Protein 1
Amino acid sequence: MTDTPEVTEEAAAPAPEPERLHGALVTRDLDQVVLHVGPDEYRPVLEALKDDGYATCIDVTCVDQLTNDARRLPEGVEPARFEVVVNLLNMAERARVRVRCQAGGPDAVLPTITDLWPGADAAEREVYDMFGIRFDGHPDLTRILMPEDWEGHPLRKDYAVGMIPVQFKAAPGPR
Amino acid sequence: MSKTELRRGGADTGERSQELPDRTTATTAELLRDSGCVLRLSEQEAAALSQSTAGSEDETMIINMGPQHPSTHGVLRLMLELQGETVLRTKPIIGYLHTGMEKTGETLTYMQGVTNTTRMDYASPFFNELVFSLATESLLGVQLPPRSTWIRMLMCELNRISSHLLFLATNGMDLGAVGMMIYGWREREETLRLFEKFTGLRMNHAYIRPGGVAVDLPETWREDVQAILDVLPGRLDEFDTLMTGQPIWRERLQGVGVISQEEAIALSATGPILRSTGVAWDLRKHMPYLAYDEVDFDIIVGTYGDAFDRYAIRLNEIRESMRIVEQIIEKMPEGDYKVQDRKVTPPPRARIDESMEALIHHFKLFTEGFRVPAGETYVAVESPRGELGCHLVSDGGAKPYRMRVRGPSFFNLQTLPHMMRDGIIADAVANISSVDPIMGEVDR
């Protein structure tokens, strides 16, 4: 019981100021730099990162956090159901950064980043196709993997696995 | 029948707005992208492009290439706008091989996960298994025994050789060097036979698993690998004679499908396409994983960013991979081939008859799988086609909450309109071939 006073002393010390980069909260789990932003900071933070030398957009993807009870977010980040994740790479400094944007609900709209990184084009289309997140300003926001007349967005958590009665219009229905 | 219906060949394949739009209806941004000049033109020139009469419907023709075309490497469909023989616009249309593997991945345990991911890029299955296993292990926080790391490296480098041999074969075939097809496949067969001996399967091995590899190497592995290393250099020299120095081959590839450094980087291209433009970027060297920092090899870079550079890079990467394999044969450490943590890897079959505990572990692992701490991670490896990444989110359960695989081919395909621009239709095949897309990975 001798260390009890020490513990209280530490607790009494002011919590260290959380790390921020371009105004976004930074976490470093597993040695990976992650920036947490909301839909409003999404575009400014990415623009600033592009200016920092992150010349390659490795990936744009999304996570539907509907049933995830265990997700960890730093204090002060408003959680949303859909999280758009952008992976950037800086070849000169051999650095990676991941931007997790709390995009919003099923009707979420984010500004596009295809004008910053033209390579994000197909990836944003895939996010739209699979999750239904819209990207404002994208040159050609259409489905990319699923047929045009597909209903629903397959990678959403409320999209059941096996609810495909007839895959092709010409095929006979189940008997 | 209207013109649009004619273009679809009368049948509605369900793409509609995913198809290449008429010039009259396309937006400037779309035109720019499909013409492959997102970065090349000033806004003024771009505006001129969208109004140009040269591109009016009567003078140009939109044709479909694929999805059933022998040179599209699977089910890639390209819509090309042609003026005479010149390609004005290109739009890749994908999704014909989409089987929802990312969704499937959410219903499989981490142990079963590799059997799913290995089927994505079917020409380099070990890399897919590797990236998923590395992602899982980074969440688990397990430390691998050195031997399993080196076995993984051995298999991956042999797989890089077989994948590039497949490229050489199909690249030759696409360009009319049909003899090359037979030679490429003959050499690839040697490596596949080796894989069958080591893992039990020629493709889709599920050999690299979270926690190590499935089985140890056979006792004769050094001789088996050495046999391939002895055969290949002579054969590669034959390829040089057959293709590299040959005037027809050079004429066919040099200056075709040129892409600049800025374009390659902006379009998220990785692997041989990026290196062909002179960017020396290889994750094995610059962000080492496994034990790549302990072996010596060179990054092969090109100068002109054309189809010939991409061919030459892949041919020489085979030689570099052989160098790595030689070093692996020398340095392979002894020890365990998988983590001896029974919560992650199953016990040996013989232990199950003797130990109740082993039986329980075995049963638990194969029915429920193991739980992975909540969190998320992104891990990337250098596959033969570029950066293969896996973004894994765990909610603390036995199945991934979300598994995203960043297939390099998916992003590399975006460079096609840029390579095709102002080229001739006969070079289209050379361009597709030099991108080396694997549709299983594009569509997942």
Protein 2
Amino acid sequence: MPRLSTATARTTSTKPWLRFVLLPALLAFDVVGAIWVWSTFGQGLWLVGSLLILVLAGINVAVIAKGATAFRWMLPTLVFMLVFTLAPIVYTGFIALTNYNGNHLLTQQQAYSSFERQTHVPDGTPAYAWAAYEAEGGGLALYLIPQLGEEAVVPDDLLGEEPTDGESAQPDPEATPSPTATETEPAEPTPTDPEADEPATGDLSDVFATAGGEVREATAGTDIFGAPDANGFPATIDGYTRLDVVQAVTRISELSATSFGAEPTVYRVISGSRAAAIENVYDIDRDAGTITDRRDGTVYSADPTGYFIAPNGDRLTPAYQTVIGIDNFVQLFGNEKIRGPFLEILLWTLIFAVVVVVLQFALGLLYAVVINSRFVNPVAARVVRAVLLLPYVIPAYLMILVWAALFNQQTGLITAVLDTLFGLDPSWINDGNGARLAMLVVGLWLGFPYFLLINTGALQAVPGELLEAAEVDGAGVFVRFQRVVLPLLLRSIAPLIVLAAAFNFNNFLLAYLLFGGNPPKLGAQVPAGETDLLISFTYKLSFDFGNSDYALAAAVTVLIFLALTPIVVSQLRYYNSWRGED
Amino acid sequence: MTATTVHEVRRNSPAAQRRRRNDRWMRLVVVVLIALAIIATLVPIYFVVIAAVNPTGSLTTSNLLPRTFTLDNFAQLFINPNVPFGLWFLNSLKISLIVTAIVTLVVFMSAYAFSRMRFRGREGVLMTIVLLQVFPNILAMVAIFLLVSQMGSLTPALGLNSHLTIIFIYVGGALGGNIWLLKGYMDSVPREIDESATIDGASHWIIFSRLIFPLVRPMLAVVAVLTFSGAYSEILVMQVLVRDREAFTLPLGLYTMSQSEFLTDFGVFSAGAFVAALPPLILFYISQKWLISGLTQGAVKS
């Protein structure tokens, strides 16, 4: 198309000064972007990092490349659709192959870090009395005096594991009890540790340790340390201010969360008056994939199932996420208590999508014809249409919530009226078939106006001459309708019917807000209900009450994608018929 | 109608008499059918309205016909500190309007590129967009949730509990269908118009803003209305990504209301539903003409 090449030539020869502004700006932008990407990968967030790289690359091409006019115009679309539509779909496919769930939230590296942070006070460790000091530039320090013959005893609420990322706030319903990871209790004495039996020998000197820094022996009254007070602590330390008792108490949580000194000797405050040397619970060998418990020498090895497992079968928490292949699909189709409910939900989803759309279309068509007929004058027709469109215009969630109230077993108006009129016991709504019927009614109510709308439009496009010709040929009303109108209509709105079926296949709002998928299926090992559609089922698998089986939900989603393939194919054909116009 | 002339010619034939008798029956059937549809449509809506203005706020058969009228339930929405309805309303309007603005602009730009430029990969990208339409982004909710949690660990503004994240996700979900809609409409605008402008030396930007924009304004309005309604009533993404009650939008707020205070406060919920339904109702009936032609365009076109 030559005309467009001239247009392209025009736009690329934009004002030269623009380059002098744009290029430095782009450079600065790229530097910031590169740092961002770097830190993203540093955190092991490979997906976010890759997306960022693509987006940055896109922006650079758009600014620099000469012939990229069209690309420039589409860049916002490409970025939004890549990050928020395409990437989630691809990522879903990946998650379906992992064991990502409430018990396996962390990556393996994050799990290692979490074990690295676990510390304990070994048995028989001498206790120290402590006083806290604060450096002039900020930063805490401890002065420690050994307590002869006293062992460090750790109260329960101190020295807890430091919080990991935000994700660890998730509930962890069936966490495997870990045999050894609770460092809040002193460990069993181990014979392999010769020092453990002889605590607090008399030859310990005072210690001065700064937060995350040096540890050294100290004596009050020498060097930088001022003269000792009644308790033996130096009253002053050069460069530091002593925290008085009140200050120390108000900052106790900060103090007890701070590690004083550096590996291998680290001290922690363990109570209001005592501190002790701590050590890591685990030796970690990332390359070999093993974690060794220092207290009893147990070696836990990384297992393909995403756990660290000891030879005797004990598992450590937290577990981690890992690729487990098609296990989720095997579960879906192999585990009796999952397969049954899953297949039933799949069947209901298909039935619902087809039946509700056929009814919506039929009713919509009927009323389009009726309202268009010569028995209704045009003004009345307009009013009737405006009224019948209401369910389409009012946000669906509102009316679904209202319908839910109307169908309520105890207080619902519909259940009450049916009880009064026909003696129908309101419990029918808690029966699978009753609830499904009600769901179809509401689905019909919600979707019928849309089909009224498009059928009305499509009918107006049916050429009047065709109908007249048919009439002259002596065809009756129904024959005319069946032979002339319907084929024309179907040909033009078939793609919309298919899309409506896809929409109802995924009608989350209706399935979830009307009955929450209830009544529940009995004997299911997964949160499945009689009126659940696949999409509300995946939602419940991932986000409902402590279920966070993301991987299984993703596997179901992948199957939804597959189930929608015929619709994709039909859309492709539709697309090809449109393409002819270009 | 030309058909009526045919009728007049044969007015007094026996066939015509039979037809008139039939007409009387048909008219009755039509009236009954329409009455049924109107009743079925209005009954649930009627109940919300009644419950909203009823002091007891309950739905029982005994008070189907309102004897008393009160606006207390509406007042509750804005007085009761447990129900930050005003805040939810503002959140909803804010998010929906921003999403609408971004989507309308971005869709316009892309549709223009697809309709007026020819470039390598055009077919592929167009086809991808058509196909992605089949998969609504709520399908990939699990992935979106995990992706957003990951983004948030570095950039809280793009993480959980952030309206910016919500806005971006809504934009991403609204683009595909609307680009398709607008591109089709733009294709029907004769290219001679911008061709002559191109020859006169107009840049894409000039053609885009001065020539095409006024011509496709009706369809842009459709895109805007559809996007607004979609964002305004979205509930799933919001529920998964936002935990902070103050940051809720109307759908999530009303949903939690209907769950927790259902039996006692149905009146307040109904009042809230009534208010929440107003913006899309007003918007729809203002833009009705364009909207209907826009929605049926796919049908009319072929």
